[in-house]
Structure formats: structure tokens, C-alpha cells
Recover the amino acids of this structure.
């Protein structure tokens, strides 16, 4: 957005921007800035988006904003290509991708440089528009398409009834040619008006789309009827022009319905949200619309009701059905202090929940956003199809013109083909004459060619696949991950919180001569009070459970990947692994055998040092997730190599690996070295996927070819990943991989049939062997086939 010198601008430390300009306030920021700017989400979004799309958010990523814009007027993949090129020429637009199946453009742009209104101008400059009310306009278009369908067939059926006797026996009613031209004119001028208008607009903007091909084909066929009325000795295809338009509009209606089914996932997700909330205000219960809910409101959720928004349980206990978020049908127990997800269902007890997130910040909103963003991206394999599509319609027009020229220049050759085919193709008639047959063939070429199938091949499969994934608690961030996942042969798992539950417990306490277990726990627990690491928490909880007195740590310091150090009761204290002891030249040889014994049982060990020497050791075990063994085995059966990444020593890591079935262990890996290990694996084996959950996994998830974040982990890990598993179990990794393979397979199938159809159909039409009406039916069926093939993805066994 251009800012003139008199604008007032505030830039926060997070590069969030606030502009005051000509009496309006504009915000460009992440949802977290709302509290800082003290504005409600809707009010924050409306001013900046009013010129483009009042009800859609701007999502920021670094310095780039991303906006999803519903496009109107697109009828085929060529239209999408035209809109995409127009948006990409707007100054300040980083990238634009148009999804023909969803009728949306996903635009990434610099909010400080681009004038959003120019996006609208760019779209309109090539003959298309931006929808203001997406749902309402979609419904209106469907109703209008149905109405055109009824009218076109009301006109075309009488034309067919008159054509059949003429084709079979040569019988024609008086004034037959006048009647056929009149009926065809009605069909093309009224039900076919929008197709013709779209074609004329495309031609005016020097572009060619599917409507241009139908326009030229039907107009050429109709012109033969008019020419016949003026006495020219050529066959009349006026009735055929009406039939072509009828089947064209029928195909469009069926295609639109099928596209709607493919995009149902997001609609269903949006419908899951609660419409109102019961809140407690001053001791009284009051029902308010969900839009009026604020962070901090106390919500009352009765059994059987949806939880209105994300929050924290303040009072009450119950079981909550979270299947809409995780795909897991077993209810989850909730008690005070537990977090709950908006739109999940409270099953048993009464819950009082404090709202912690509302609007665009909620889990459900983020899921919808991720699914929409993924559907707005492109799979790399689509690049070739896009290239073909951009040249498709102009090339078909050229082929149609060449067809007429070749028929006139080489009539003998083509007549030989027609004569040969006459015995088994009923509509082939060599007696029509060269000019009539040339027009017949050219019309068939124009209406048989189908860029729509190419344009629908990838996005429809992507829409169905990502929708299925979202319903199972699996969120793909980009379409590229679906293709890349197919090429991955090695999967790396972080240990803690990924393969294990991430809630370790103290299992062994060893004290040296003269010390007790309580002495060891007192020293270790006191120092560990300064850390929030899961191992530290386990030690502190064990000390408290044994009623061991703990002191306050001083000069606390974390030694990354090795342990902690500090002072307790005036004594210098160290708690950590062998590397920490060696770093500070501390003798722990008297504990070596105990450490080895514990490590061979897959336990993480810590040496405890107080004063001048080691006083004991502690063994901590982290329980494997219930499905880890099953998931690892399933991945191995799929031909994937599994690797475990851990900061534990090699002996402990290999013991855990044996339990879970992982074939390879990378041990003693410090958090900062995880990225380097992933890079080394990529150099060794090629494409690598990583599964992790912690904040220190984020760089490694980014480095991996496919990063898979456990949804129960940290937000930064989720933001750094290509795939997020909401449920947090490893079985979801197996499901995600199966689903990505199945989705990519459908994409390949769709592209194959779309290309194969056009490669076979166009040459057949050139030789005059294809009736234009049958060509139009085949064209419509090719698009419908691509969409229905994508819908068959729902039957995949996962």
C-alpha cells in the first residue's frame, strides 16, 4: 500500500504495521498484535480488505502478506492461467497461484509496496472479477446454471426431434431449415449468452479460453445453417450448434456440482464452529453470538454442547469428543487446568471454560487457514500442465484453421479416410462434399479439445486429499509436500516427545558410599528447580513425592545438551551426562557400572555432583507412545528406512531403538547439531523426512525435505513443518504418508487421462471421424471424469 509523507505510521518491534491515512486506519500484522493495537479481529480486517474481500484475512509470513481472493467468471484452466499471469504482473506481488477447481487466487505480496486495489484492476483488465460474497454468489451461480440448463434443453429437444427423421429417412417438415436456424439462434442467444459474453471478453483481451472454442465451434456450425438458407450448397449444422451448447452447459453444471463436492472439506470444517456461547457475567448466564465472545470470558458448556472457542477448563470434569480435530473417536478426559478446543463436544459433565483464543486465532480457524493455503499452492508436477494449458486454446484454434485448409488442399487423402470409416462409423457421410466435411471436422476439433481436464487434474485431487487429511487430524501446509513425500526413503524421528511420550519418570537412584537416595535427590532436585526440561521436572516430582526438602538454586546455568550447573546450599553442584563431567574434569568412575546397567535398559542417566565429587546417579525412563512400535513396523513394511535422533548416549539410544524397531540411531546429538545431522543424511541417502515436536526441532524440520510436526508439540515446530499431526501419535505419520502417496497417484492418473484424451481425440476430429455433438459430450465427460476420479480418493484405505 503506497504511503504518502503525511501518513502516520507505527512500526512495532515485530515489524507489525499500523497506518493512519485519510481518516482510515490500516493494520498489517499477525493475530498476536491485536491485543497490542487493542482492536477486534473483524474491525482490524475490514478497513484494509474492504477494496478486495471484506470477509477474508490477510495472513502475514515475515514481510510478506498472503491473501485468498475468490475469482468470478473463470470457465476453464486457460482462464485461471490468464488471471494468474495478470496478478503476477502487479508491482509488489511476489507470487500468485490460481486454483481453477476452487475458483480462488492465492496471492503473496509485499503489504508496504502493493496497492491492493490494483489486484482487482488486474483481474478485471483480463475480463474476470472478484467475488464479494463467496457463498451467496456460488449459490446464485448454481441456481442460474440450473435455469440455463432447463431452457437450453427445452429449446434443443424439439430440434433433436426434427433432426432424427431427417438423419434416418431424409424426411423434413416444411420450412425445416428455417425452423432449425430459429431454434439454434434461440439456444445460442439466450441460454448460451453467458458463454458467448465470456468468449467475446476473452477475445477482446487477446486471450483464448474454453468459451472461445465453444463460441467459434457453435458459431461456425450455426453459420452453415444460415448459408444454406441463402442457397449455398453445403450441409446445415445449425441444429448441431444448439446440441453442442446444450451438452456444454450440461457438462458445466455437472462439473460445478462435482467441484463443489471436492471442496466440501473446508465447508464442513467451517460448519463445525458454534454459533453462540453461554457466558457467565456477574453470576448470571447470558447467551451471546459467537462473534461477541472475548478472550477471558467465562463460558458455561453443558453436556452435549459444543465448546464455543478454545479455552482452559476452570471448573468441572468431563469427557470431550475431539474427533473433529484429531480424528480420534475416543473421548478425552478434561479437568481444571486442561485446555480444550473450540467446536469439540462436551459429553458428560458441566464445564466452565475461560476463553483463551477467539476468531482467527482459534485452532479451527488455523486448520481452515492451513487447508486453504495448501489448496492454494501448486504441486511441482503441475508446472508442465500449466505450461500446456497457457498455449492450449490458441493452439486448438490454429489446428482448427489448419484442418479446414488441409481438407481443401488434400481432399483425396481425407476422402479416402472418410470412405474407409463409413462402414463402421454411422455419422460419416462422404457425399456431403469437401467444404461441408472440412467445417464438420473443424467444429469437432474446436469442441473436443478440453483444457478444463488439465486444469482440474491437480487441484481437485489436492482438495479431496487435504480435506480427508484434515478430518483425520493431519494438516498439509503445501501441495509440494505431497509430491516430495513420495520420493522420501528415510524418515528421522526425534526421540523425546515423538517416539516417547515426553514425560519421563525417575526409575533408579544410586548413592555412593556414605550418601543416601534422599541426599542425592535433595541436591539434584534443588538444582533442577531452575530448569523446565522434562528430565528436570521428573527429578523434582520424584523428590517431592518422597517428601525430600529442596533448596533454592543459585547461579543456575544450562550447559546445552549436557546438563545443568549452579550452587545449592553454598556448594557447587553439577547434574548431567558424562560429557558434562568430562568438561569439568569430574571423576565419576565409581558410578560407571551403574550408568552402563541403566543405559542398557534404555534409561537416560545423570551423574550428581556436589562439592568436590560425585555423590550419585539417577536413571530416568521415558515411556514409549502406545503405537510407536506398530507405526515404525508399518513404515519399514512400506520400504522406508527409519532413523532415531537423540541426545542420549549411544548405548541408551540403541536400547530404545531395539524396543521400538528403529534400524539406525544417531546418538549424542546436541540440539544445535540436529540440522547438521539431517544435512549429512541428505548427502548420504537423498530425500529425508523428519518427525519432531520440540522448539529445538524447528531448524531440523525446516532442513528436512519434508518436516512433520507432532501437533502436541510447540507452535514453532508446527510453523516450521510441512505436515502437522494434530493427534500427536506416530500412527498419524503412517496415515499421512499413505494419504500423500494416494493423493499424488490420483494427480498422476488425472494428468495422464487429461493428456491422453486430448492427444487421441484431436487427431480423430481432424480426420472428420468425430461428430461435433459426440465431441462435446466427450469433452464434458473428460472434465467430469477427472473430478470424479479425485472424489474416488475418499475410498482409499488408510
Amino acid at each position: 500500500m503506497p504511503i504518502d509523507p503525511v501518513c502516520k505510521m507505527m512500526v512495532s518491534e515485530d515489524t507489525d504495521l499500523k497506518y493512519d491515512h485519510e481518516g482510515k486506519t490500516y493494520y498489517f500484522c499477525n493475530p498476536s498484535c491485536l491485543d497490542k493495537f487493542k482492536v477486534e479481529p473483524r474491525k482490524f480486517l475490514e478497513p484494509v480488505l474492504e477494496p478486495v474481500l471484506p470477509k477474508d484475512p490477510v495472513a502475514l509470513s515475515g514481510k510478506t502478506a498472503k491473501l485468498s481472493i475468490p475469482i468470478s467468471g473463470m470457465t476453464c484452466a486457460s482462464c485461471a492461467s490468464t488471471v494468474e499471469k495478470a496478478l503476477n504482473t502487479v508491482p509488489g506481488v511476489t507470487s500468485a497461484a490460481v486454483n481453477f477447481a476452487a475458483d480462488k487466487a492465492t496471492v503473496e505480496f509485499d503489504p508496504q509496496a502493493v496497492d491492493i486495489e490494483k489486484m482487482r484492476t488486474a483481474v478485471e483488465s483480463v475480463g474476470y472479477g472478484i467475488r464479494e460474497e463467496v457463498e451467496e454468489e456460488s449459490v446464485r451461480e448454481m441456481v442460474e446454471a440450473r435455469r440455463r440448463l432447463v431452457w437450453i434443453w427445452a429449446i434443443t429437444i424439439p430440434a433433436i426431434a426434427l433432426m432424427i427423421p431427417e438423419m434416418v429417412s431424409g424426411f423434413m417438415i416444411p420450412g425445416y431449415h428455417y425452423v432449425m436456424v430459429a431454434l439454434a439462434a434461440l439456444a445460442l442467444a439466450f441460454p448460451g449468452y453467458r458463454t458467448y459474453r465470456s468468449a467475446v471478453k476473452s477475445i477482446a483481451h487477446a486471450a483464448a479460453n474454453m468459451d472461445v472454442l465453444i463460441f467459434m465451434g457453435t458459431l461456425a456450425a450455426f453459420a452453415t445453417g444460415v448459408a444454406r438458407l441463402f442457397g449455398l450448397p453445403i450441409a446445415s449444422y445449425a441444429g448441431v450448434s444448439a446440441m453442442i451448447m446444450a451438452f456444454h452447459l450440461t457438462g458445466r453444471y455437472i462439473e460445478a456440482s462435482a467441484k463443489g463436492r471436492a471442496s466440501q472439506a473446508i465447508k464442513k470444517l467451517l460448519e463445525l464452529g458454534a454459533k453462540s456461547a453461554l457466558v457467565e457475567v456477574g453470576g448470571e448466564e447470558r447467551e451471546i453470538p459467537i462473534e461477541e465472545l472475548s478472550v477471558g470470558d467465562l463460558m458455561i458448556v453443558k453436556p452435549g454442547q459444543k465448546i464455543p472457542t478454545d479455552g482452559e477448563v476452570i471448573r468441572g470434569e468431563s469427557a470431550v469428543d475431539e474427533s473433529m480435530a484429531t480424528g480420534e473417536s475416543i473421548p478425552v478426559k478434561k479437568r481444571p487446568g486442561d485446555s480444550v478446543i473450540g467446536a469439540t463436544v462436551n459429553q458428560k459433565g458441566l464445564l466452565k471454560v475461560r476463553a483463551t483464543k477467539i476468531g482467527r486465532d482459534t485452532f479451527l480457524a488455523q486448520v481452515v487457514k492451513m487447508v486453504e493455503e495448501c489448496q492454494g499452492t501448486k504441486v511441482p508436477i503441475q508446472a508442465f500442465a500449466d505450461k500446456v494449458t497457457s498455449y492450449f486454446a490458441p493452439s486448438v484454434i490454429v489446428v482448427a484453421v489448419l484442418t479446414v485448409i488441409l481438407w481443401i488442399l488434400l481432399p483425396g487423402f481425407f476422402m479416402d479416410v472418410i470412405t474407409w470409416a463409413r462402414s463402421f462409423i454411422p455419422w460419416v457421410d462422404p457425399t456431403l462434399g469437401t467444404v461441408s466435411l472440412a467445417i464438420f471436422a473443424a467444429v469437432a476439433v474446436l469442441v473436443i479439445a478440453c483444457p478444463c481436464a488439465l486444469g482440474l487434474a491437480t487441484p481437485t485431487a489436492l482438495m479431496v486429499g487435504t480435506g480427508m487429511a484434515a478430518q483425520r487430524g493431519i494438516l498439509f501446509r503445501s501441495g509440494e509436500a505431497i509430491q516430495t513425500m513420495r520420493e522420501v526413503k528415510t524418515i528421522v524421528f526425534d526421540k523425546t516427545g515423538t517416539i516417547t511420550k515426553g514425560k519421563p519418570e525417575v526409575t533408579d537412584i544410586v548413592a555412593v558410599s556414605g550418601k543416601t537416595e534422599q541426599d542425592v535427590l535433595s541436591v539434584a532436585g534443588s538444582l533442577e528447580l531452575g530448569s523446565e526440561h522434562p528430565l528436570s521436572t521428573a527429578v523434582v516430582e520424584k523428590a517431592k513425592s518422597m517428601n525430600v526438602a529442596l533448596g533454592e538454586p543459585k547461579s543456575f546455568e544450562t550447559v546445552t545438551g549436557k546438563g545443568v550447573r549452579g550452587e545449592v546450599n553454598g556448594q557447587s553442584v553439577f547434574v548431567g551426562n558424562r560429557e558434562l563431567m568430562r568438561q569439568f574434569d569430574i571423576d565419576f568412575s565409581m558410578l560407571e557400572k551403574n550408568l552402563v546397567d541403566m543405559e542398557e535398559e534404555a534409561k537416560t542417566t545423570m551423574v550428581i555432583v556436589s562439592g568436590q565429587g560425585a555423590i550419585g546417579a539417577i536413571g530416568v525412563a521415558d515411556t514409549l507412545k502406545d503405537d510407536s512400535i506398530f507405526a515404525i513396523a508399518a513404515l519399514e513394511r512400506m520400504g522406508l528406512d527409519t532413523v532415531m535422533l537423540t541426545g542420549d548416549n549411544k548405548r541408551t539410544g540403541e536400547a530404545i531403538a531395539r524396543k521400538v524397531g528403529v534400524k539406525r540411531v544417531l546418538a549424542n546429538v546436541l540440539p544445535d547439531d540436529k540440522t547438521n545431522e539431517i544435512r549429512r543424511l541428505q548427502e548420504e541417502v537423498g530425500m529425508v523426512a523428519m518427525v519432531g515436536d520440540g522448539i529445538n526441532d524447528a531448524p531440523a524440520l525446516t532442513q528436512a525435505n519434508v518436516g512433520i510436526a507432532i501437533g502436541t508439540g510447540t507452535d514453532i515446530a508446527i510453523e516450521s513443518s510441512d505436515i502437522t499431526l494434530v493427534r500427536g501419535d506416530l500412527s498419524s505419520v503412517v496415515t499421512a504418508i499413505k494419504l500423500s502417496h494416494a493423493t499424488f497417484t490420483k494427480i498422476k492418473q488425472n494428468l495422464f487421462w487429461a493428456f491422453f484424451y486430448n492427444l487421441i481425440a484431436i487427431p480423430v476430429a481432424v480426420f472428420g471421424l468425430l461428430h461435433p455433438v459426440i465431441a462435446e459430450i466427450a469433452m464434458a465427460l473428460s472434465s467430469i471424469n477427472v473430478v470424479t476420479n479425485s472424489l474416488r480418493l475418499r475410498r482409499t484405505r488408510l
The chain has six domains: 1-46, 65-132, 138-264+377-459+750-793, 294-357, 474-499+625-726, 503-623. Residues 691 and 708 are 5 Å apart (CA to CA). DSSP finds 29 helices and 30 strands in the chain. Residues 1-23, 30-62 have pLDDT under 50 and may be disordered.
